[in-house]
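We treat protein structure as text, and this decision shapes the records that our systems exchange. The tokens are whole numbers drawn from a learned vocabulary of local backbone shapes. One such record is reproduced below, unchanged from the form in which we store it:
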Amino acid sequence: NHAHVIGTSDPHILADRKTGKYYMTSSGFTIIGKTSRANRVPGTISCLVSEDLIHWSDPITIFDCRGTDFWGQMGYPATEMHLIGGKYYLSGTAGTPGYTRKSMILVADNPLGPFRWLSNEPYSPPGWQTSDTTLDVDQQNHPWIVYSHEWYQVSDGQMVAQPLSDDFTHTI
């Protein structure tokens, strides 16, 4: 799939030195002129793979939580993939209308999964609507989760940065 035929929202690309490939995650993909099984299926996260940023694979499902009712439901999470300490992390926000959107982190040994939840609890405070969750590691090698506390709850929107435990399982 040429880059010109890919439609997406909230894309994030990991340039992975470990595999020599690029991995794009987003809140869903549309491949113009094609139908894809992994195209915007609620409760799934998919990615595209490329070796040159021009030619991309069809969407590949890398996480599927349909039927688990984890945190209510997971709609179309906008995710980012990060390689940190030899592990692949997906950070994002999960939720659908009628549920609170919560910050989440998933982990895998391979960029194509299988990814698994790191925590049974969201990283954001109870009742907070969050968006645009990302990860960062500071100069002292301490992990952080960063996200937006949605503007319609706090009128101006707020960026929140919380330190994480070294195993990424909870905020400190």
